[in-house]
Amino acid sequence: MWSGRSSFTSLVVGVFVVYVVHTCWVMYGIVYTRPCAGGGNCIQPYLARRPKLQLSVYTTTRSSLGAENNVDLVLNVEDFDVESKFERTVNVSVPKKTRNNGTLYAYIFLHHAGVLPWHDGKQVHLVSPLTTYMVPKPEEVNLLTGESAAQVSISTRLTLNVMVDDFVFDGSSLPADVHRYMKMIQLGKTVHYLPILFIDQLSNRVKDLMAINRSTAELPLTVSYDKISLGRLRFWIHMQDAVHALQQFGFSEKDADEVRGIFVDTNLYFLALTFFVAAFHLLFDFLAFKNDISFWKKKKSMIGMSTKAVLWRCFSTVVIFLFLLDEQTSLLVLVPAGVGAAIELWKVKKALKMSVVWRGLRPECQFGTCSESERKTEEYDTQAMKYLSYLLYPLCVGGAVYSLLNVKYKSWYSWLINSFVNGVYAFGFLFMLPQLFVNYKMKSVAHLPWKAFTYKAFNTFIDDVFAFIITMPTSHRLACFRDDVVFLVYLYQRWLYPVDRSRVNEYGESYEERPQQKPRAD
C-alpha cells in the first residue's frame, strides 16, 4: 500500500502530465488550420491575384476616423511588397491635446497603389494607440554628488505584419481568432478575403516608451514590417489575448511587459521549449517546497545541520525578495521568491528551537545531556564561519563603498538593499560552505533533505534557461549559475559519503532503530 506522502506526490505528477498533454493538444489546434477541401464554401486569398498595394500610416487624436480631415500622414510606402521586410524611423508631431494627457492614435491602411484609402473599397485598416498612461520610473542619481543618469535615445515602435500564405479557408469552419481580422469581398462567383493586416502589440515594450511633457513637440516613431505565416499569426493573436487577460486580472503594465518580452525576444521553437520548462519548473517548485516542509516538520535535532547556514539562507532569501521588490521585478520571479522567503523564516524558527546554541530552549542541554553529534556539529559550524568572516566582511563593506561612489540609485534605501543583495549574490555561496564543511568533518550527508535538494537542483538548472529569457537584474542572473556549482559539490559529497544506515535519514529516522515487525502467526 502506498503511503499518504507517495500517493499525494503521484497525484500531483499525474495532474501535471494531464496538463502537459492538454496543453500540447491546445497548441496543436492553434497552429494547425484545416484547409478547404473544395466546394462552394471555400474562401480564396485576394493576395493570390498579386495586386499592387500601398501602405499608409496616419496619426490623429480621434479614436474613430470618418474622413481624411485632421489626420497627419507620417509614412507612405508605394509599391508595397508584402514579402519584403523593412524598418523606417519617422518623426511624429505631438498635438497639444496629446501633451495634455490625451491619446495619439495611428491608423494603418493597406490599399491599392495610387488610390487614397478613403476612396478604395478594397482597403483594410487597423488602429493602434501610440501613447499609454504609466507611472514614471524614479530617476536614479549619485547619492553623494546628485548627478543623474545619462539619457538614452529611444524610439517608440509600431510593428506591422501581413499574412502571406496562399491559404484557402473553409467558410463553414473559420477560426474565430483569425475571423475578426478578415474582410471578405465577392468577386464573381468566388469569395475572397482581403490581405490580413496585423499589429504586433507584443513588440511594444515598456523600454521603448518615451515620456511626454508639455514641451514635447515631436517624437521618433520606428515602423517595422515583416511577413507572417498563418500558424504564427494565430499563435500571436492568442498570446496577445492572454496578455490582455492578465492585465484584466490585475497584472501591472510592467508585469505584462515581462510576459511580452518572453514572446518577442525568443525564437518560436525555443519559446515552445520554454513552455515545457516553465511547467516543469512549477512542478519542481511545488515538490521542493512540499518536501522541504515535510523534512523540517519531522526533524527532531540539528545533528549534521549548520545552524548558521540556515540563518544565512533565510537572511539572503529575504534580502533578495526585498531587492526584487525594489527593482519592480516581474511577478514570475517575485512570487516564488516571496514564498521561499516565508518558508525560510519558518525553518529558522524551527532550527533555533532545536539548536544547541539556544540552550535556554533545550532543557536537556542545560544538564549536559546533549548528544556528542550535536556538539560536534556546532563546533564545526562555528569553526567554518570564523574563517569565512575574515574574507566576507571586508569584501562586502568594500563593495558597498564602491557602489556608493560609482553607481546611481533611486534612494538611500535602494543603495542599502543593493549593497546587501550584491553581498548575497557575490559572496553568498561562501555561506553555503559551512554546511559543506560540516559534511566533510562528519563524513556523512544522511542528515540533509535530499529529496528537496534534488527538486531544487533541477530547478537551478531550469533557472539557467530562464536567466536568458526573463528580464531580471544581472546580479540575480549570475546567481543562478553560481548555485549550479554549489549543487554539484553537494552531489559530489553525496557520492563521496555513502548513506550510513546507522545514522538518521532525511526524515529523522534510523534504519537500524526501526522496530522489527512481529512475524504473523500462521
UniProtKB/TrEMBL annotation:
The keyword Transmembrane helix applies. It is found in: Membrane. Its main location: membrane. The chain crosses the membrane at residues 7-28, 268-289, 310-325, 387-405, 411-433. InterPro entries: CLPTM1 (IPR008429). One of its GO terms (cellular component) is membrane. The keyword tRNA processing does not apply. Keywords: Membrane, Transmembrane, Transmembrane helix. Signal peptide: none annotated. It catalyses: a 1,2-diacyl-sn-glycero-3-phospho-(1D-myo-inositol)(in) = a 1,2-diacyl-sn-glycero-3-phospho-(1D-myo-inositol)(out); a 6-(alpha-D-glucosaminyl)-1-(1,2-diacyl-sn-glycero-3-phospho)-1D-myo-inositol(in) = a 6-(alpha-D-glucosaminyl)-1-(1,2-diacyl-sn-glycero-3-phospho)-1D-myo-inositol(out); 6-(alpha-D-glucosaminyl)-(1-octadecanoyl,2-(9Z)-octadecenoyl-sn-glycero-3-phospho)-1D-myo-inositol(in) = 6-(alpha-D-glucosaminyl)-(1-octadecanoyl,2-(9Z)-octadecenoyl-sn-glycero-3-phospho)-1D-myo-inositol(out); a 1,2-diacyl-sn-glycero-3-phosphoethanolamine(in) = a 1,2-diacyl-sn-glycero-3-phosphoethanolamine(out). It is a multi-pass membrane protein. Belongs to the CLPTM1 family. Scramblase that mediates the translocation of glucosaminylphosphatidylinositol (alpha-D-GlcN-(1-6)-(1,2-diacyl-sn-glycero-3-phospho)-1D-myo-inositol, GlcN-PI) across the endoplasmic reticulum (ER) membrane, from the cytosolic leaflet to the luminal leaflet of the ER membrane, where it participates in the biosynthesis of glycosylphosphatidylinositol (GPI). GPI is a lipid glycoconjugate involved in post-translational modification of proteins. This is Lipid scramblase CLPTM1L. It comes from Pteropus alecto. The lineage of its organism: Eukaryota, Metazoa, Chordata, Craniata, Vertebrata.
